[in-house]
């Protein structure tokens, strides 16, 4: 029965339409009809109606009324179908098969009718770029591809009469992509409320997934999203799907017929089998029929095709295996996917004459007729193929150089990445090894060189566990001589696969003339190099036969300084042999030819590298300083081994010193929460460590899918997917897709390193959404990654910027500044990168500030106490104290400060001045008192002279008149105001006591007349007489 549901209103429309054209088409035969049903009703019943399988070929001539089936959940076991008339399960007849209550898709010649492919992109312009993406049938599987701009979705419509399960197989290996599977019910609600993350599979094995499907209508979604826009490849992220089965479906009312090219040999078959090669079958067949002579048919054919006459390009010529006598000859073979007949065409060339097999490559010897093996440890081989030891004093030159291809050399193998497809392996042809002819669309063939033992280093210890962190010997190079010819679309890619990751080295498309490609090995860890040839078509929906003109050919593969391989020859060792290697110089030394100043002879000796450089050489050949020593870039210093490591105390050209040891710990930061178009959340988590001086500091990003695929690097990224039903407070994550975004520290430069650097880094800071570094004090750590993405022409890199936070004025005079550390992703590129290739992070911390110089400090001085005072120092101007710097110091100080001395001096001067004024005033007062007394005495003398003596007993003669009334010649007049002297004191201005007449006195005494003063002049040398004194002088 066709899985089709009808609603009651559609019954009559369908029945009416079937009979309206009844007269125009022939009557349907029983095998041309099928049944359709309605959805189950609430009482568990449903309706069934007979309809033509193809209404354009026939029609029903009799009315077919709907049939009520009471048990909607009735099912039949595999190999049986429900008979409508008897309501019993009957076995399927030969040529038919029924899976039971299972819907199954195992072959994909086209997209099944219940499946739909969609492209999910941001806008219409992007959709035009995504025309080559989607889900495409590939016969045995369904291929889905996607990119960062072109996410794709596969949808399957489903109807279950009861709860069942969906089971499917898939192959998904891309570490930079995400794949989800969801089941939604008829209300578009997620089954169990969660999306399922499809974990990655291995390259050669399919993974199985199963989950529940609800009763009723549902949609199943496969969603593919690439985390990177990796450029040219038509299938960037690939997902292969096969063998989809859904249980819980309604019972089949009839057994489906086997399609043409398939058969069911007996009754009760659950599935139809495919017809083998060169057989065919029609629809509803129970056996396959062999093709006639001169015809052919690929597996699953509905008919045989006449063979075309062979062309010259339908054959390939290659050497047969070497015999035990070392002989071989050329043979012609028809390309495996090509079917032709030499009748009427080109016949295969006869076998060539017997030739001597080419010797095995250097360092190897014959193992058997088809392969070579390495010589015993430390031995080499010449053209004869015999293995020999090196002469005394010489050491083997380890490496591989494969340039003869009669036998497969050691460590080389060929395989097809899609093991389920017909495989066309690489084939040897004496002078080359090639592939391409007979390869079908979207098929690929790989050649692998396994050097998982790693490469030789100059490190004396040479521990295997350390190889991932050491450099190989200088000039360790992989060189490949190849050519590529593409008549249609094809490519040859070279990938390097290590224990933790696989990344693309180079990819070539189109016609590439014969050339040599070199790749320098930068890590001593083991690696596998894989060359993969692939065909595809731009029109992914089109089919094309195998194109025999597409071919990739490799003539030679050479790589030196390999571990545990044969030797290419021998070399002399200047300092002697240590085991199988030349004796090396000590750490930090290299071998050089030095001139003896005494004898003027040149002698071999170990010389040290200059300060600030590292040794990249070994003691196998004399080298100059320039050849053997490599200067460490800015911000780094020589470390152990052959690496420059982080300088924890860098000094800038401006003389600023940093101490960054407190920032040398593992740091992690999450990007913004992102969502796919289906609403599935994911977060990118970044980890980094800036101290490259210890290899144990490398951070680890986890892959919960494959724990052995975890990533270790200085900077790495992992994708976090929230686990279903975890709360936001205690959210847990599923970690997948770890990649390295920083394997090597390139340099660490301050912004002020140069004008060009300041301009470049400030542009990056502003583009990311941060402010430019106008002070020039930021330090920028530059990391390169060996992760290769074809969309990033210059590779993947990371910048970590250390920035001193702005000075907090409120905390300037506190005891300490805050010691917090914060990491930011670019504000304008919340996923850590603005272009998918270059990552940038900003670390803010006071420990990123330069150490304060004396001029940068703020001093707060205390009072002087006993000749000592306390001084508190505070950092300002964007700097900080070093860890061992005293922030509180004591200084000697004088008892009196300069201000105190000045104050005391002023006080003493004022006191002295006041004393002098007092003394002066005192002296002036004494002079005034003396003058006054003189005046009084002079006045008394004149009074006595005028009135005579009143004493009894006088002689009655006239008294001597006072002849002095004033100041002697050596005395000075009293001046009350400058420039003016009191000339006369008139009687009216005298005190009342002086104006009294003698007769008015109560007691007899002497009365004073007016006292006359004159200004002091030169004529005052004589004594005033009374008459002169009584004479008034005008004022």
Automatic annotation (TrEMBL):
Highest taxon above the source species: Eukaryota
Region of interest (Disordered), residue spans: 944-965
Any single GO CC term annotated in Swiss-Prot or TrEMBL for this entry: membrane
TM helices/strands, residue ranges: 902-921
InterPro entries in the record: Elapor1-like_3rd, Elapor1/2, Elapor1/2_MRH, Growth_fac_rcpt_cys_sf, MRH_dom
PROSITE patterns, per database record: MRH
Feature: compositional bias, Low complexity: 945-962
Pfam families, per database record: GBD_ELAPOR1-like_3rd (PF23032), MRH_ELAPOR1_9th (PF23087)
Keywords: Disulfide bond, Membrane, Signal, Transmembrane, Transmembrane helix
Span of the signal peptide: 1-22
Matching SMART domains: Ephrin_rec_like
MRH domain segment(s): 653-851
PANTHER family found in the cross-reference section: MRH DOMAIN-CONTAINING PROTEIN, PROTEIN CBG13728
Protein name: UPF0577 protein KIAA1324-like homolog
